[in-house]
Specification:
The structure holds two protein chains of two kinds. Chain A is mainly α. In chain A, helix 3 packs parallel to helix 6 and helix 3 packs antiparallel against helix 8. Chain A has two domains: 41 residues; 210 residues, Orthogonal Bundle (MetI-like fold), CATH 1.10.3720. Chain A is built from twelve helices and no strands. By secondary structure, chain B is an all-alpha fold. Chain B folds into two domains: 44 residues, no CATH class; 230 residues, MetI-like (MetI-like fold), CATH 1.10.3720.10. In chain B, 77% of the residues lie in helices and 1% in strands. Chain B contains 14 helices and two strands, in the order H-H-E-E-H-H-H-H-H-H-H-H-H-H-H-H. Chain B has a two-stranded antiparallel sheet with strand order 1-2. In chain B, helix 3 packs across helix 14 and helix 9 runs antiparallel to helix 11. The longest helix of chain B is centred in the first third of the chain and has 35 residues. The radius of gyration of chain B is 25 Å and the shape is globular. Classes of the chains: A mainly alpha, B mainly alpha. Chains A and B meet through helix 1, helix 3, helix 5, helix 6 and helix 7 of A and helix 1, helix 2, helix 4, helix 5 and helix 6 of B.
Chain lengths: 278, 311
């Protein structure tokens, strides 16, 4: 089948991939390039394609800036708290949806749960703002954790149900025959099998909470600002310190990127709602 | 899926007392459902009620919500700024999402068909997923830097090849296009991964059978690849459209709706009405219009794709 025509397609396809790869990689490169440059080389024409006189000043600035550090720590606490809660609740619900069909007749309940993700979050941001004001949850870590937990639950439940569905029922039955209770069967048989999926789900939940901006912007105040809320206002003085901003961007983008590389198979499966298995 | 669950039901009933097993699943599902209900459905119903009220709590004379019927909706549909944001949405969502899904599909098929080494394929898939892991707000900052009118890298590169560069972010359509490019950079990976997964799961035997029957590559694409991927392409469209309705972070950082209010999208406009004009009733009405629009788009799209499939 190696006609000239299929060859043309082949090289056109490969060309497209090369161009797109450059398009994806360039902004990542430019972020690092800018972060390592002295300010005098930013915004010049022609652009400085690589840092002349490699500098770490911008990273030192980020890591010695108490506002940035506090915000990153807040983000860490909020993202981790959210992850633990949402994966526990999501795994429990996902297990029930997977193993007891009567709590999810026709898949309607789990679909309803997933569909709450489809409504734009701005729909709840106003009521939440006032309700949180009444309950004293504004500017608290727990308030934001509760919110992110809710936004994460549909996805974690859906994914966990999917991962549980992939484990054959006969494994549990064998455990029951051996005299295990349901809890023991879960702990000793099911949990080890579902662990990779569980880890991927946790990582996705973590990344969502780590990256969220709109609700953090509305709900947090001085005590709990997350890193996303300080990025719009960071160093907006007379001259924008782009090297510092890009160093900050590189620092906060590193954890999710490392997570992706470490757990790529399961993360990709999770990002596509279980549709893609590379 | 359901058959395995049913058989579990039948068989477990033999081993374990029914009474205990009836309670367990409810205890398992309960916390998740209650949390989602309290934090999502409850506030949404309250906002539905607010959308039929006038409420401007930060004005100098504080007032309680007062019922004003469909006043907020009537205001909304005669408000030029809302229509501008809706038109922007049609441009941004229509063109942007279509480009993203088509580009993602083309890339996924090229990657699957024309890159032989598995390690290279996985490496590229991972690279294409990197932008999705970065906070949209941070991605916005990066693109803001790239698109600076003087001294930005994009115009710098255009300048090196002899173009005078474009005044990004300084006009309505270029501003929206800039948002679209930044969003495409971040999100083409999603349709790409979905379609790639779909293509990988089409059995080779289907293509072999077609080749035996002398079908051309084009016919194989038309009769096998496209029909098999149709549902996934629809899902990719729907997922990206849902996100387009939510689009906020990058707009907030790259254009802030400017110049003036020209590049506002509906969600951003809602934020302005709610949190800088503090007209809560109107903002609530806006959120419901956006939410219903989003659900309607999804249903129409699903219907359209399904009738397409049956022809």
């Amino acid at each position: 089948m190696s006609t000239a025509r299929t060859n043309r397609f082949k090289w056109a396809g490969r060309g497209l991939l090369v161009v797109y790869t450059l398009f994806v990689a360039f902004p990542i490169y430019w972020t690092l390039n800018t972060a390592f440059k002295p300010l005098s080389q930013i915004g010049t024409f022609p652009p400085t394609l690589y840092p002349k006189g490699f500098q770490l000043d911008a990273f030192v600035w980020v890591l010695s800036n108490s506002r940035a550090i506090d915000a990153i720590l807040n983000s860490l606490i909020i993202a981790s708290g959210t992850t633990i809660l949402s994966v526990i609740l999501g795994a429990l619900a996902g297990y029930a949806f997977s193993r007891f069909s009567w709590v999810d007749p026709g898949g309607h309940v789990s679909f309803w749960l997933l569909s709450t993700r489809m409504f734009p979050p701005v729909a709840v941001v106003l009521p939440i703002f006032f309700i949180y004001g009444q309950l004293g949850l504004q500017d608290t870590l727990i308030g934001l954790i509760l919110l992110y937990l809710t936004f994460n639950l549909p996805l974690t439940t859906w994914l966990m149900r999917d991962f549980f569905d992939k484990i054959p029922i006969s494994f549990e039955e064998a455990a029951f025959v051996d005299g295990y209770s349901r809890f023991q069967a879960f702990r000793k048989v099911i949990f080890p099998l579902v662990r990779p999926g569980l880890v991927a789900t946790m990582m996705l939940a973590w990344v969502f909470a780590w990256n969220e901006f709109l609700f953090a912007w509305i709900i947090t105040g001085n005590n709990t600002s997350t890193y996303t809320t300080i990025i719009p206002t960071l160093i907006e003085s007379n001259q924008i310190q782009w090297n510092n901003i890009m160093a900050m961007a590189a620092v906060v983008a590193t954890p999710p990127t490392l997570i992706l590389i470490a757990f790529r198979d399961n993360i990709i499966e999770g990002m596509t709602l279980g549709m893609t298995d590379i | 899926m359901s058959t395995t669950r049913d058989s579990l039901q039948e068989r477990i009933a033999v081993n374990i007392p029914i009474r205990r097993e009836k309670l367990t699943p409810l205890l398992l599902v309960g916390p998740a459902l209650v949390t989602v209900f309290l934090v999502t459905i409850g506030p949404m119903l309250w906002s539905l009620w607010l959308s039929f009220n006038r409420w401007t709590p930060s004005s100098i004379t504080y007032q309680e919500p007062t019922f004003n019927g469909i006043g907020n909706f009537a205001w909304l549909f005669t408000e030029g700024r809302f229509w501008d944001s809706a038109i922007n949405f049609v441009y941004y969502g229509g063109v942007g999402v279509t480009v993203q899904v088509l580009l993602g599909t083309a890339l996924a098929l090229a990657l699957y068909n024309y890159v032989e080494r598995r390690s290279v394929r996985i490496g590229l898939l991972t690279l294409f997923a990197v932008p999705m892991m970065i906070a949209p707000l941070v991605a916005g900052r990066i693109w803001q830097l790239l698109l600076l009118p003087g001294g930005g890298a994009v115009n710098g590169i255009l300048g090196m090849v002899g173009n005078s560069g474009l005044p990004w972010l300084q006009s309505r359509w270029l501003g929206l296009t800039a948002l679209m490019i930044a969003d495409t950079w971040q999100w083409v990976g999603l349709p790409l991964l979905i379609i790639y997964g779909g293509r990988a799961s089409i059995p080779d035997s289907m293509y072999e059978a077609a080749q035996v029957n002398g079908a051309s590559r084009w016919m194989q694409f038309r009769r096998i690849t496209l029909p098999q991927l149709q549902t996934l392409i629809a899902i990719a469209f729907i997922l990206r459209f849902m996100d387009a309705y939510k689009f906020f972070d990058k707009l907030f950082i790259i254009t802030r709706g400017g110049p003036g209010t020209q590049t506002e999208l509906p969600t951003f406009y809602t934020y302005i009405v709610g949190f800088s004009e503090f007209n809560i009733g109107r903002a609530a009405a806006l959120t419901w219009v956006i939410g219903l629009g989003s659900i309607l788009t999804m249903l129409l799209f699903w219907r359209f794709m399904n009738t397409e499939g049956s022809v």
